[in-house]
Amino acid sequence: MFPIRGGVRYLSSPVRTCLNRQTRLMANVGGAGKQFQAEVERRLEADRTTRRRARAGFWTFAAGAFICLGAYGLGSAFPPSVIRLISPRPAAAPPPPDSPEALAQVQRLEKQLMSLPQVLELSKKTDGPDAEYYEARPYATYPRERAVNSLTAGALRGAGRLAIPPLVFAKRDESEAKVFIHVGRGVCGHDGIVHGGLTATLLDEALARQAFLNLPSHLGVTATLTVNYRAPVMADQFILIETKLDTVKGRKATVSGCIYDLDGKLLAESSALYIEPKYAQVLANGDVKHLLGVHTKPSVGMEEKPHHRAGTGEPMPMAGEQVIHGEPPKRD
């Protein structure tokens, strides 16, 4: 072989041909290596992409499952109104009226009633000679032998239904009143919703009280009653009925009222006309006034018992106590 001087051009033709072949071969090998490396990188990137997608899918599924379980848990603890309408919570039947369970439920509800912020606020307005309101409990001392034939004082009274007597805060001029009532699960039409007929009955009684106390004999009958239902009245809650005297003309009184939940949501509104019968003077007696929740001397068997004043701890007659059973309270 000749020495290389100045490059390949000094080599013989056979040597240059061999070197060119080797150069092309190396170039081809180098190109294949680059292609192989590129293919490896492409496959690695595809694998990394697949792994990222798998991880993203897993965490998306986990987050979705967590949200669903959390929503289910919150929905079970605090079910939305629509879900409660479709699938209300199961509830046991009302216990027997004189059972320990019934008495415990009544006492618990009485305590809750007296602890309501609205009740505590109104109670402040019943103190002193110039108090704006007075407090009363219609039917609280109604004897059992008389209550057996009464719808709201007898048949519907008891744990799981109308467990405790209404609590009334009435203005002393008998122009307005606020009535707190607890409605239980045993007075429903659709499960979980208070029967519309009972809603109308509670409105009728609250409005009648407002009207009767403004009629000459404190007696009257319902002539017309209009009820507009604005929202379902859910069971197992306290409701507030606000009543207002509209007009009084002789033996006729017109009143209006609304039912609210304790959050202030309007549930129903009503207006009514009450008329005093011509023979009302023959029927008028102290029992009627006593049952309406006014201060008057009751007849035999209807003795007064001190009213519970919210925040004072004084007891009020409740279902199960002797006074409800028609037995006069013991006196010292």
TrEMBL record:
Keywords: Isomerase, Membrane, Transmembrane, Transmembrane helix. InterPro entries: HotDog_dom_sf, PTE-AB_protein, Thioestr_dom. One of its GO terms (molecular function) is isomerase activity. The keyword Transmembrane applies. The chain crosses the membrane at residues 58-78. Gene3D superfamilies: Hotdog Thioesterase. The keyword ATP-binding does not apply. Residues 299-332 are annotated as: Disordered. It comes from the Eukaryota. Residues 192-267 form the Thioesterase domain. This is Thioesterase/thiol ester dehydrase-isomerase. It comes from Dacryopinax primogenitus (strain DJM 731).
